[in-house]
Amino acid sequence: MPETDQSVSPAKPLASATVAGNECVIDAQNLSLTFETGDGPVHALSEVNLSVGAGDFVSFIGPSGCGKTTLLRVIADLEQPTDGSITVNGVSAHEARLNRAYGYVFQAASLYPWRNIARNVALPLEIMGLSRSERRERVQRNLELVNLAGFAKKFPWQLSGGMQQRASIARALAVEPALLLMDEPFGALDEIVRDHLNEQLLKLWDKTSKTVVFVTHSIPEAVFLSTRIVVMSPRPGRIIDVIDTSLPRDRDLDIRETPEFLDIAHRVREGLRQGHSYEG
Amino acid sequence: MRPGRLSQSYQRVWPVVVVLMVLLVVWYASAVLLNTPFQRDIYQRAKLDNVSFTTLVGDTLNQERPVLPAPHQVGQEIYKTTVQKKITSKRSLVFHSWITLSTALLGFFLGTVLGVLLAVGIVHNRALDKSLMPWIIASQTIPILAIAPMIIVVLNSVGIQGLLPKAFISTYLSFFPVAVGMVKGLRSPDSSHIDLMHTYSASAWQTLWKLRLPASVPYLFTSMKIAIAISMVGAIVGELPTGAVAGLGARLLAGSYYGQTVQIWSALVMASILAASLVALVSMANRLVLDRMGMAK
Fold first, then answer.
1. I want to staple B179 with a disulfide (CB 3.0 to 4.6 A). Which of A85, A101, A226, B115 is the partner?
2. Does residue B205 or residue B243 have the better pLDDT?
């Protein structure tokens, strides 16, 4: 995809997600990121336009290598775009990171093995310089939120994978961010645990009215969780389709049998297929 | 005690006992073999013929200055110079061991601190990484026997005497494994663990204190096990050029001046017992600390 200096690319209507009336939390314009590797440049992101409104639950879905994780990392200022602009909460992604504007949940739980669960959740709070009593209160509250109150004194290796991931979600929530960035948090878990955690996450989102950006490669997961689904495609990483779903906010797992759900899932699958043929 | 536990401790003890027995047998056999020529000389001069084999063996194991002393001779010498001598006596092995041990411990402590500081600098500063590492490696290619007298002489000339110059030789040897191990340890956290610190916009100091240092603890202990053993070597080598006044190194040197092989061997055995105990102590501390950190294997 050629890039000119003033690439005011007339964003294809498909590739642009616009604010649906509410306050804009993330705004990306013509975002591109190219990794220079030994085998030549890799276009991880190309001309991505995206905006996420407050309270949205947005999922990035696509095959591996489509840049969905890279896009999330750019939002988190863990990766720098080579072109285009991005704002988070109206300021640059860098400034937003310094303001601790978001909580990030990694693919692996990434708990520190030498800290017990409570101290893992307390880690960001120690770095923020909160008082001991404030830390204890927030740890307690967030462990209760993810149903791990009884496991505060356990070390990570004493917990199952699903519990570890819940602890890492509690750690992200303890920062009390309005924005939650989640990179395939349930990817390594079996389907039963994943369903359960999806339901819990949705309840949490409904209760706290946070904005969530969620990376996944599971179609049912994306459709079940999201208010908006961003379908992505690899080489170069770009947005193929943006689907606003009309499912009610308080949904349960049974909704996956309804025609509306299946319709949306079908459209996501079509989008993914289209991206695939584009590549061929 | 439950039978399971008993058999378990048997299983742990047996290999050690077997190896010890084999070592003793080999030692005794070697002593007989190596001491026989001198013993035959003695018999010849005394015009003794037809000495029985058992007498020969008995005599080779009880010479005053054998080529290779027998284990029981070394044991007796150690007993005589530890239990039967006052600790303050110049002939007490405890006195000499304490001198060497305190030198080694001081050198080990300084070496560990120096190694950790160097590693922290190397990990945090690209220029230090490029410039320091070659020098650190080069420092270890110099034979310690050659540089030890220089260090003693130079430090003496600026008025530093006593324990410190010898301890510096231990430091010179022991900082190296700690520096190398800690560089690896401080760089051991997963990239997601480091990214996590970025998302909290943690300072470099916070990342060091809350992530890199705790992650490097297992590496530190592995390095310290090597460092404390070579600290003993450094302390003994450091005692040689000081004119053999005190310490296990002095006992070795004096023993070789006067052909006191039993004395040499008892000092050697003492040194290795000390080094083994020190390594065991570090291992114990390692287990305790990792257990408290929830990282015990």
1. B115
2. B205
How far apart are the C-alpha atoms of B186 and B209, rounded to whole Å? 10
CATH superfamily of A13-101+178-279: P-loop containing nucleotide triphosphate hydrolases (3.40.50.300)
> Does residue B53 sit in the same domain as residue B135?
no
Residue segments in chain A with a per-residue pLDDT below the cut of 70: 1-22, 276-280
B2 pLDDT exceeds 60?
no
Chain B residues with beta carbon closer than 8 angstroms to that of A115: 294
Is the pLDDT reported for residue B29 higher than 80?
Answer: yes
Would you call A214 an interface residue with chain B, using a CB distance cutoff of 8 Å?
no
Is residue B278 within 8 Å of residue B87, measured between CB atoms? no
**Per-residue pLDDT tens over the stretch B96-112:** 999 999 999 999 999 99
Please state, in angstroms and as integers, the Cα–Cα distance from residue A85 to each residue in A12, A47, A71, A229, following that order: 18, 10, 12, 22
> Both ends of chain A: CA-CA distance in Å?
16
Domain of B10 in residue numbering reads as 3-68
- Chains A and B: how many Cβ contacts under 8 Å? 58
| Domain co-membership, B98 together with B195 | yes
Q: How does pLDDT run across A164-183, given as a tens digit for each residue? A: 999 999 999 999 999 999 99
ipTM, two decimals: 0.84
* Residue B86 located in a structural domain: no
Q: How far apart are CA B267 and CA B247, in angstroms?
A: 9
Among candidate residues A26, A36, A42, A21, the one with its CA nearest the CA of residue A85: A26
Cα A167 from chain centroid? 17
CB contact under 8 Å between A123 and B198, yes or no, is: no
